[in-house]
């Protein structure tokens, strides 16, 4: 790694850690404040008590953070806490077995999680509404099954476990720290953690990359449910009773800690270290209020205000990120792709023996609207074919048929002489047809390295069973793939949302694995790009064609067509108005053709 790269990366790491170090400073300041204001706050006994009080929040924090990172939320955790606590109470007092209580409650938690996740994904409405409704149902169930009375009569072994200490640390704290550590490991080191970030960054891009996004979110709700089951058992054993009032307002504690720790409410960002310090700050505040002898209503008020402050800070960070993204749409640093000198595009003479994509008589209607009436054209391997047309000409519908998103009503698609039956996008992928959609291509919160391996991530050698992502190999793969296309980025882990538009488009195109790509379709790749960025993207399209793919570019931009195209197809009202080689037209004629005006040009039949 070069010195400037190292410096840049270090700088960003420092920037990231400094925002967390602010919270650590706040935690120490709070400790000192309560120590000097009331006295006796920093004692071993009090610290252990703070940890015991924090145990439920610690257990719930990472699963809650992961849901937020994917752009979801679970507001049913207080209701789940109540009903699962009651379930645990019934099981332990009914059977006399703490083990049955534990296993039964965890299973109950998994079921609640499954219900939450299924309704969120199936109903496709806001997870806030779904989980708020379900949480109310769970709370009601806890009251209905107990008539509002606590359950007490547990065997002594149950409470004994909770009161046992190992090396001076109570068992509930050890359980909570273990649960947190496992969650942090899964989030930060594994492929599964990467998928959470990718889903939060761009759900569609993650899905198109092969991440099973719906299943992932469903499993995260189950993980959340099991964690709530675990904390319900821990609390019931610690308190020695199960009551439907347990956990009132608990979701506010968890969300406050997690958002305070820097997890973005809108998804895509957050780290376990931030979550940990968020939980610690909340724990110190709660204990401090008790020490100060403040009325519990003030505690409630303070917690609510803290949540508002955390949310406000989150929105400020999000707004800053948006502004930075806007500002960085300008050309990037000198060593990056968009700033590389635009190289003149050299067209090679088409190879008459190269394979062909042949589209013949394609037709597609949406109800009464015929989007593609009758389209036939050819795109030769090793060449760039530009597909032009005014708004509503049928370009998107045509590429959706070529990508397996829509099934044609009539017509055939042949590749190298073989007819293709594309029922779904996976069929097009298998046939070697890759489409780069303008807005759906990248998870902007991840770096180029992780975007390029998404869906086919390398695992650390011999550690696949642990799910460990091999970041170094991801970077190597990305570096090789991008450099084979003539792109050199200074930092492969810099979120692509921070790259310039041209760089982003280059990374999106590089997601297409050149080996095995027979047809590459680029949907408006130069829309909203500057002159030099456009030149680089076009150069990339030419490089792809030189590897032997048939490149099809959908565009409105006549200048780009004149610069890069070997072959041109103009669509108008769902029909081919013109098909021919680039030397048969000039820019003026293309503009006329796009407007549907054929004056003097040979028109395809
Ligand atoms: N899902 C749909 N349901 C109904 N009509 C549709 C649908 N998708 C497209 N159409 C109609 O089909 C026609 C062709 O649309 P299409 O999006 O394919 O054109 P386009 O050339 O890609 O346009 P643009 O450049 O504006 O994206 C339009 O009249 C459009 O309104």
Automatic annotation (TrEMBL):
GO molecular function: ATP binding; ATP hydrolysis activity; transmembrane transporter activity
UniProt membrane topology term: Multi-pass membrane protein
Subcellular location(s) per record: Cell membrane
Domain ABC transporter: 357-598
Keywords: ATP-binding, Cell membrane, Membrane, Nucleotide-binding, Transmembrane, Transmembrane helix
An annotated GO cellular component: plasma membrane
Spans through the membrane: 21-42, 48-68, 75-93, 99-120, 127-146, 166-187, 217-242, 248-265, 272-291
Source organism, top-level taxon: Bacteria
Protein name: ATP-binding cassette domain-containing protein
